[in-house]
Request: fold
Amino acid sequence: MGYARPRPKRLAEKLLQIRNALGLSQTDLWRRLGVEDEISHKLISKYELDQNEPPLKVLLQYARVAGVHTEALIDDNLDLPYKLPGDVRHEEIKRKYIPRGKKR
Reply:
């Protein structure tokens, strides 16, 4: 038996932020994501309420629609850009570099 992987704590909040920033209803977002054949539009609400976690393909579509890196959705330490959709080509993710083998 394995261990459950940790879930991003802020994912639901970020998904709701994307929809609100784009001014879309849940059904409109579902269509914009282009996942009509893969998930029910009712799952958008469950994602935003943190009742379900979207599959990777749906997360990728969220990132594309929002113009952000998927890392910005998944990493709880990163915030979404103030203005959405963002421009993923110019977005810079700042991280502290820690060489391998060295302790913090």
